[in-house]
């Protein structure tokens, strides 16, 4: 293992500068050890945070072959910590790395409840913050906790709402998975309502909602086994509301094939109230603070319904007017969020944000969208919450033409905004305490891993709660820069440029582009740091992908972005590399059928034959068809409606045009893009006498070696860096030979 890490270090040392003795290269071992934080929950008063700390190393050794097995829980360990926000002091709940889900504070902020993985199941634990005591809660039932279970405290803190598996569920689900995976005889029959894998995976959604007392360990089952999501509890504890889904058939149309209904269970009477009728058009209820009414949007209108209402009320029916005198399109409204006093809701239309009174249905336009915002040219403003007094809105802010990000407060009466924090740092995961006095967020300089912060809602006081990676100060790290450019069609695009760690102005360096769709925000990226430590520029250019003709977008956008950097004198045009993962791998293979300007290319878990790919991943059932017809692949038609589009976006048909040396990396357990797809390209290029290498990781899944074991992660990056170094050096040899001939 050490030998592979050193190999990467040696490649990076080729461009070592004067500070090589003081800073150490960033290696694959370092990439595995960078600590990330996920805030699980904040106490109502904002005084405490419960969070998990994890690394890339904690996500290894997944058994990818068991994807689709409802009984399998993939490994995802880390450290569970409790942080006191006033002092930034923290303590570990366990002295070992554990796998937890759904850590939740009790209403009084003294206890944390959470699920901890124990073998192939989750068990309930509680942590007493004041006593620093952790206890396993063995429920008085023979039923296991469902792996998809919610976990919510009762409003008075007397118990917990969770989901159980029915008796015999594990054996039945495992047998269904085994029968479809190993046979000995597997039959698929179109007369069945469901694809076989749909039926197996659907079992994983089943649960029995229950309330448990963590002290007595007693269990009260509320409902029969079913598919339940979106739980909410009324503040008096009487009602538990939820959405129940009923699969009807496997559908190839997005949003079809399943019926949904919203219901409420009365814990006093044991009766169930139907709040919305069954319908394939799903209602996404937004519950008020008291939990006794919900609002939702449907077909351009916003409805509200309380427990005592006989039917939902349409609040926007009278406001469905034309957008303007010049545009007869009717206004459509979407539900945003309830005001804290439950008296109004915030909704959005094409004109802007409106406050809508739920009793009188009176509506006021409080924030008008500018033409720039409506045309996606102005800053992005995302509503994150109301001020506790209901007089203002907190909005996350991000400029679209530069790195300027932060949080603003919009005064509804004065109709103007005030910046709370706004600068070039990268802010994410805004979260407000229940009492409205604290705002939590992660912040990064844009080039370093993020840490957790807390501020009062005026940002008069801010506190850094973590310092997770101080050791990175001793490593060579890249710096990033936003690049703006025009693609071939004149569209303004952006890319993120990452500098070699020992960059010397005036020197032209190799460049490796990682491609996918659009890129804008920076942030710590271990992949770009590994490329930068190898002496390369890393570049993440964007592409404008047009429905029906996405393949042209990468040629028009990626190459234009690279040209912009070359024109600045930063990059050696003879030392260009390109790679991508999944959809980016697919893009890479298509791109090199259209241009030979790259010295080397790498396809990581990307398809090459979009036709065979339609049915090539049975465990995800109809996803590949939907992706091509109306999703990410953007072909916009079925294979039989527009076969020429599928042919045009199948790279293997143009393999004879590929002149770029190609490395392909795949995983045996890849449920998303099976290696059989890449195998087609390997055999085609070999048959054509092209330069191609195919590396297949038997323990890996989607993402090849980096989604496998620690050993495979090192190997994965050793091969990537080595592939580029080898072919960039060949470019140097070609230059020397040419110069010799001229002499």
SSE order and pairing:
Layout: H1 2-13, H2 28-33, E1 36-42, E2 48-54, E3 79-84, E4 90-92, E5 100-105, E6 111-118, E7 121-128, E8 133-137, E9 151-153, E10 160-164, H3 169-182, H4 196-202, E11 206-212, E12 219-221, E13 226-233, E14 239-247, E15 258-266, E16 272-274, E17 286-287, E18 293-298, E19 301-306, E20 313-314, E21 322-324, E22 327-330, E23 334-338, E24 344-348, E25 352-357, E26 363-368, H5 371-374, E27 380-386, E28 392-398, E29 405-411, E30 416-423, E31 426-432, E32 438-444, E33 451-456, E34 462-464, E35 480-486, E36 492-498, E37 509-514, H6 526-533, E38 537-541, H7 550-567, E39 571-581, H8 583-591, E40 600-604, H9 610-613, H10 623-630, H11 643-648, E41 662-667, H12 675-687, E42 692-697, H13 710-742
Parallel strand pairs: 37-38, 37-39, 39-40, 40-41, 41-42
Antiparallel strand pairs: 1-2, 2-3, 3-4, 5-6, 6-7, 7-8, 9-10, 10-11, 11-12, 11-13, 13-14, 14-15, 15-16, 17-18, 18-19, 19-20, 21-22, 23-24, 24-25, 25-26, 27-28, 28-29, 29-30, 31-32, 32-33, 33-34, 35-36, 36-38
Short description:
The chain has 743 residues and is α+β, with helices and mostly antiparallel strands. 19% of the residues lie in helices and 33% in strands. It has a domain at 477-742: Rossmann fold (3-Layer(aba) Sandwich), CATH 3.40.50.1820.
């Amino acid at each position: 293992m050490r030998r592979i890490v050193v190999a990467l270090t040696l490649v990076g040392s080729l461009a070592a500068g004067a500070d090589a003795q003081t800073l150490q290269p960033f290696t694959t071992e370092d990439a595995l050890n960078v600590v990330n934080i996920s805030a699980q929950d904040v106490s109502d008063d904002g005084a405490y945070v419960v969070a998990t700390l994890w690394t890339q190393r904690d996500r290894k050794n997944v058994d990818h072959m068991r994807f689709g097995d409802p009984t399998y829980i993939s490994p995802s360990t880390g450290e569970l910590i409790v942080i006191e926000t006033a002092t930034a002091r923290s303590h570990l709940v366990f002295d070992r790395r554990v796998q937890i889900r759904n850590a939740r504070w009790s209403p009084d902020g003294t206890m944390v409840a959470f699920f901890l993985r124990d073998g192939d199941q989750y068990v309930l634990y509680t942590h007493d913050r004041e006593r620093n005591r952790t206890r396993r809660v063995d429920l008085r039932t023979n039923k296991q906790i469902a792996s998809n279970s919610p976990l919510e405290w009762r409003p008075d803190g007397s118990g917990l709402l969770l989901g159980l598996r029915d008796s015999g569920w594990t054996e039945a689900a495992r047998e269904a998975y085994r029968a479809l995976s190993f046979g000995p005889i597997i039959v698929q029959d179109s007369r069945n309502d469901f694809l076989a894998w749909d039926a197996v995976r659907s079992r994983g959604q089943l649960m029995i909602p229950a309330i448990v007392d963590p002290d007595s360990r007693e269990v009260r089952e509320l409902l029969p086994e079913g598919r339940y999501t979106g739980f909410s509890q009324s503040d008096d504890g009487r009602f538990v509301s939820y959405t129940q889904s009923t699969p009807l058939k496997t559908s190839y149309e997005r949003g079809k094939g399943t019926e949904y209904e919203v219901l409420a269970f009365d814990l006093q009477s044991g009766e169930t109230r139907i709040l919305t009728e069954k319908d394939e058009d799903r209602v996404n209820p937004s519950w008020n603070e008291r939990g006794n009414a919900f609002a939702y949007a449907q077909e351009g209108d916003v409805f509200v319904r309380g427990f005592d209402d006989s039917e939902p009320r349409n609040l926007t029916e009278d406001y469905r007017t034309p957008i303007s005198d010049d545009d007869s399109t009717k206004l459509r409204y979407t539900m945003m969020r309830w005001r804290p006093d439950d008296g109004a809701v915030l909704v959005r239309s094409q004109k802007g944000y409106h406050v809508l009174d739920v009793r009188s249905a009176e509506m006021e336009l409080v924030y008008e969208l500018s033409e720039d915002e409506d045309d996606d040219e102005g800053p992005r403003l995302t509503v994150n919450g109301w001020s506790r007094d209901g007089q203002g809105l907190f909005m996350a802010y991000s400029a679209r033409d530069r790195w300027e990000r932060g949080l603003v407060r919009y005064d509804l009466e004065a109709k103007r905004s005030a910046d709370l924090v706004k600068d070039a740092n990268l802010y994410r995961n805004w979260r407000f305490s229940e009492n409205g006095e604290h705002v939590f967020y992660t912040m990064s300089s844009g080039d370093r891993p993020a840490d957790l912060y807390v501020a009062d809602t005026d940002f008069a006081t801010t506190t850094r709660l973590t310092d997770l990676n101080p050791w990175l100060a001793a490593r060579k790290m890249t710096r990033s820069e936003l690049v703006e450019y025009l693609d071939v069609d004149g569209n303004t695009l952006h890319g993120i440029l990452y500098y070699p760690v020992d960059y010397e102005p005036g020197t032209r360096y190799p460049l490796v582009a990682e491609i996918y769709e659009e890129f804008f925000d920076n942030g710590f990226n271990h992949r770009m740091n590994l490329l930068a430590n190898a002496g390369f520029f890393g570049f993440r250019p964007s592409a404008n992908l047009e429905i029906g003709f996405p393949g042209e977008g990468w040629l028009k956008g990626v190459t234009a972005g690279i040209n912009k950097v070359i024109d600045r004198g930063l990059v050696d045009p003879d030392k260009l590399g390109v790679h991508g993962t999944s959809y980016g791998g697919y893009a890479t293979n298509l791109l090199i059928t259209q241009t030979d300007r790259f010295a080397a290319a790498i396809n990581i878990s990307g398809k090459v034959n979009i036709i065979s790919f339609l049915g090539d991943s049975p465990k995800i059932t109809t996803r590949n068809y939907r992706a091509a017809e109306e999703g990410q692949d953007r072909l916009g038609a079925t294979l039989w409606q527009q076969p020429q589009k599928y042919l045009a976006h199948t790279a293997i048909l143009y393999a004879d045009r590929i002149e770029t040396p190609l490395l392909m990396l795949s995983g045996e357990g890849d449920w998303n893009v099976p290696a059989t797809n890449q195998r087609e390209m390997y055999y085609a290029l070999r048959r054509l006498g092209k330069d191609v290498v195919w590396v297949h990781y038997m323990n890996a899944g989607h993402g090849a070696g980096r989604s496998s074991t620690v050993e495979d992660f090192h190997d994965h990056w050793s091969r990537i860096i080595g592939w580029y170094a080898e072919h960039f050096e060949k470019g140097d040899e070609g230059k020397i030979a040419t110069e010799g001939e001229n002499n």
